[in-house]
Design goal:
heterodimer; A: mainly alpha; 66% helix; globular; disordered N terminus; B: 450 residues; alpha+beta; D-Maltodextrin-Binding Protein, domain 2; 2 domains; 5-stranded mixed β-sheet; 43% helix
Chain lengths: 342, 450
């Protein structure tokens, strides 16, 4: 018997048990649906309050600021209309920081997903000490970003770092890793350092794939690669899709260069090399070093819009490439399919 | 089947109520802040006054001690420019804020965010204007220039930040004469010394000959330009000019220093963020850091034995020795506990705390009467005291612009100079680029300050 049938029965029973009671909505006991709705709202109130106070209100406030020349401190700020938004698209520094961020995203998101997937496939094999390998590979992802950045800064220091120490042993000249043009590569390696997160997500996805499918494919003569590419990857596509979406959003907002500078202050912005001067570093600098709250707020709103558009496009483009074993909208079980066709 | 909604929330009402509650939660602290007229003498929770002090972690213990001595509970807030800006913008600032008087006073004073302390000084029996060291003029601003007008803060101690500390062991190893205690080096001589003291191996610097900008590149260029009789800032402080012969000379020297790769610079920043760890490890021969660096030296007897102090080098004939920091405290205009903050000032700057600080060697005390407390027990301290005493007569206040923060101007430098250091742009072109970008920043600030 379905829940709706139970609800209807309960409502009907309630109505028939007190026929002499005057019909009035105030006295009628709340239906199951109403009680459930109330419970839903009660449980979601903390989140909704948090969302309104910590997301909606700041977003609205930032939107208002973005139409002013406020510096956060002076009383003389005024309405400047769309000037800040015009400047966003005409400021070469902003445009180049956006371009750099895009390139970084285009490089690191596929890299981290592929690396995480490869590691997940490896530690999903029936090998000895599998748990130990999983733990070791995941550990770097547990290290706080500031700790990882500090470690990398020490390793790649030109004069006393281990990287140049190794080159020294081989009689090779030291490299100034932490400044241009090498700084971007150090940052990419640092980003890959946290690949354990992706590994865990992909591993969970791999373990959700029924073994029978791969076994059946092998019986039918499929090679390991065919089995991986035709069965595992399609069934893993929702998990990969999740990583693509969250990875892109995270990369567009990355703040890592400031952490590697180990001085997340307005002063620290000046030690971020040009190749790592990403969009969010520019936002931070405009807010707190340059005191341009209005312009920085416009930058944030533009980024917000970019993220919304990019996410929308990814969802549109993913149709036909992501295969759900359960329809996400209806949550009704559906027969497992290979390649998305019944 | 229709469902009764009476007695339960509908979505619209739910969202309306939530929005109201969220707005109230956000707005109420602001209302609470605006109720206090600033005249009260501290928070009397649990019968004791509470003073919110924003300072650096290394001063936390000292502040707690001061609080105990005064019977005031110190609510410590770690120094964070972003947090300070947010607190000032919300009109809910700390009662006392640590800051760099030399470069922050015009910025905050011009925006009306600092309390004029003259009435407090006039009444004080502890902090008398006649006893206040001239360095505290950097905490004054009259709306047009530093060094005049109301006092907005007080330095806890200070240094003349272009003076030099050097390691005699590295000088002796390079068979070089020790530096004069009275006659300043020229910057060209300093550069040559730095080159001779630098040791390399396979493209790596094993020992830096010279660190030329301990407190930031903009300040360094400002001081160098002043020693040639010029000024980076225009008279109205509304623009910079690095193309003037004096500023260009300073810029060219800096580019040569950075290209020589004999010390940390904007193209190769010090990974430690300051000179001490490198200097302590014997990997830096000369550090341009001022008297305060002696406090760190005092913590390592081996380093103290081989450290000596020398006058600030000069780029031109106008001998000056400026202070770029004058780190101290100020009271925000919207602070709630101003009287308690002033009590804190009197004890911290003129009481036992000040005496102990003066003896620590981390800077020249802010009160002239405390100078005799400066450490002179060890040979390096005695030598440093003597050199410092002579240097004081060359102290001068360099006015900073009220229209931009130092971090913004240093940010421009770190964008423009690396290209010039790598030879991709000449000093003249770099100067033009610096002028353009910095003046844009300053113009935007001027529009707001008026």
């Amino acid at each position: 018997m379905s829940t709706s049938q139970l609800t209807e029965q309960a409502a009907g029973a309630g109505a028939s048990s007190s026929p002499s009671r005057p019909a009035g909505p105030a006295r009628r006991p709340a239906s199951l649906r109403a009680r459930r709705a109330r419970a839903f709202y009660v449980f979601t109130v903390p989140w909704v309050l948090g969302f309104l106070a910590l997301t909606a209100f700041p977003l609205g406030y930032a939107l208002w600021l973005s139409f002013t020349n406020a510096d956060g401190l002076s009383q003389n700020s005024r309405f400047v209309g769309l000037d800040n938004y015009r400047e966003v698209f005409s400021d070469p520094e902003t445009m180049s920081s956006l371009w750099r961020t895009g390139v970084f995203t285009a490089v690191t998101v596929p890299l981290t997903i592929v690396a995480g997937l490869l590691l997940a496939v490896l530690v999903n094999q029936p090998i000895r000490a599998r748990g130990l390998f999983r733990t070791l590979l995941y550990l770097p992802a547990v290290v706080p970003p500031v700790g990882a950045a500090l470690t990398f800064k020490l390793i790649f220091d030109r004069d006393s770092g281990a990287a140049n120490g190794a080159l020294d042993l081989a009689g090779i000249n030291g490299v100034t890793w932490l400044v241009d043009p090498y700084a971007r590569w150090v940052l990419i390696v640092l980003t890959l350092w946290g690949v354990g997160n992706g590994m865990i997500i992909s591993l969970a996805g791999l373990q959700d794939i029924p073994k029978e499918l791969n076994e059946a494919a092998r019986v039918d003569g499929a090679s390991p690669w065919q089995s991986f590419s035709r069965i595992t990857l399609p069934l893993l596509s929702p998990v990969i899709f999740f990583q693509v979406v969250t990875g892109i959003i995270g990369s567009l907002q990355t703040f890592m260069p400031l952490l590697i500078a180990l001085d997340p202050t307005p002063k620290g912005v000046s030690s971020v090399p040009e190749s790592n001067y990403f969009y969010m570093i520019n936002v931070f600098a405009q807010y707190f070093a340059n005191g341009r709250y209005g312009y920085a707020s416009a930058l944030l709103w533009v980024l917000f819009a970019i993220i919304c558009v990019v996410t929308f496009l990814i969802f549109k483009l993913s149709k036909g490439a992501v295969f759900y074993s359960v329809e996400p909208e209806q949550a009704k079980p559906k027969a497992r399919t290979i390649g998305g066709s019944r | 089947m229709s469902v009764s909604t009476t007695g339960s929330f509908d979505r619209r009402r739910f969202l309306t109520v939530s929005a109201g509650a969220a707005f109230a939660a956000t707005a109420l602290p602001g209302c609470a802040a605006s109720v206090d007229d600033g005249s009260s003498d501290g928070d009397t929770k649990a019968g004791s006054k509470t003073l919110t002090v924003m300072s650096s972690e290394d001063e936390k213990k000292e502040l707690q001690t001061v609080g105990k001595a005064l019977g005031i509970k110190i609510n410590f807030v770690a120094r964070d420019e972003t947090k300070l800006n947010a607190m000032l913008a919300a009109k809910n600032p700390p009662d006392v804020v640590r800051g760099l008087g030399a470069v922050e006073t015009p910025y905050f004073a011009a925006r009306g965010l600092m309390t004029d302390l003259d009435p407090y000084f006039a009444k004080s029996s502890v902090l008398k204007p006649s006893d206040i060291d001239p360095v505290n003029d950097v905490w004054r601003y009259d709306g047009k220039k530093q060094g005049a007008g109301p006092r907005y803060g007080l330095a806890k101690d200070y240094s003349q930040d272009q003076m030099l500390w050097y390691r005699t062991d590295l000088f002796e190893a390079a068979k070089l004469d020790l530096l004069s205690e009275t006659e300043p080096l020229s910057y060209d001589e300093l550069l040559e010394l730095g080159k001779k003291l630098t040791k390399r191996r396979l493209g790596k610097v094993k020992v830096y000959g010279l660190s030329a900008s301990g407190l930031g590149t903009f300040s360094q260029l400002m001081g160098m330009t002043a020693s040639t009789g010029g000024s980076v800032f225009a008279e109205d402080l509304a623009s910079v000019d690095f193309s003037s012969p004096e500023a260009l000379k300073a810029l060219e020297w800096y580019l040569e220093y950075a290209r020589a790769d004999i010390g940390p610079n904007v193209a190769n920043p010090n990974p430690d963020g300051w000179d001490w760890p490198t200097y302590q490890a014997g990997r830096m021969a000369i550090a341009s850091d001022g008297y305060w660096f002696g406090g760190a030296i005092g913590g390592d007897p081996k380093v103290a034995e081989v450290s000596r102090f020398a006058p600030a080098p000069q780029l031109g004939s106008n001998r000056i020795s400026p202070c770029f920091g004058a780190t101290g405290y100020w009271i925000p205009k919207d602070a709630k506990n101003k009287d308690a903050a002033w009590k804190f000032f009197e004890y911290f700057f003129g009481g036992k705390a000040a005496e102990e600080r003066a003896a620590g060697g981390w800077g020249i005390p802010s009160l002239k009467s405390l100078r005799s407390k400066m450490p002179q027990a060890q040979p390096y301290q005695k030598q440093a005291f003597k050199v410092q005493e002579q240097e004081l007569e060359h102290f001068s206040v360099l006015t900073f612009t009220p229209y931009a923060q130092l971090a913004a101007l240093d940010g421009v430098i770190s964008k423009v100079l690396p290209k010039a250091i790598k030879g991709k742009a000449s000093a003249g072109k770099a100067a033009d680029e610096l002028n353009k970008l910095m003046n844009e920043q300053i113009a935007k600030g001027k529009e707001l300050v008026g």
